[in-house]
Amino acid sequence: MSEDQVTETAASSSKGRPAGKSKTGFFARIALFVRQVIGELKKVVAPTRKELINYTLVVLVFVAIMMLIVTLLDLAFGTGVSWVFGGTGATDR
To answer: Which of 44, 65, 80, 92 could form a disulfide with 87 if both were Cys (CB 3.0 to 4.6 A apart)?
Structure first.
């Protein structure tokens, strides 16, 4: 890659924050943080109704499948433990 193709990042920029200890005040740092949060929130793109429904269905199907897998494993291990140790539960005497 040639040097003119590489974009300048904030870390390599001379305009970035100096490497030494910050000399700004407490409230100035809070204000900077709030400005950065607002800037990041402006980049957020809300999903459309169709996307939101699709994502919700994907999550519900995934959770249902995981519940089925855990239920089957629980039954299998419970049956296996009963078979190995005998009896049907802790109340047997």
So the answer is: 92
Report d(CA 77, CA 64) in Å as an integer.
20
For 37-48, the pLDDT digits (tens) are 999 999 999 999
Asked if 42 and 34 count as a contact pair (C-beta separation under 8 A), the reply is: no
Assess contact for 15 and 21: CB atoms under 8 A.
no
What span, in angstroms and rounded, lies between the C-alpha atoms of 39 and 33?
10
Average pLDDT over residues 9-23: 57
| Contact in structure between 88 and 82 (CB atoms under 8 Å) | yes
Helix (H) or strand (E) holding 45: none
Question: What would the DSSP string read from start to end of 50-89?
Answer: HHHHHHHHHHHHHHHHHHHHHHHHHHHHHHHHHHHH-SSS
Whole-number pLDDT of residue 48: 96
Percent helix, strand, coil in the chain, to 5, is 60, 0, 40
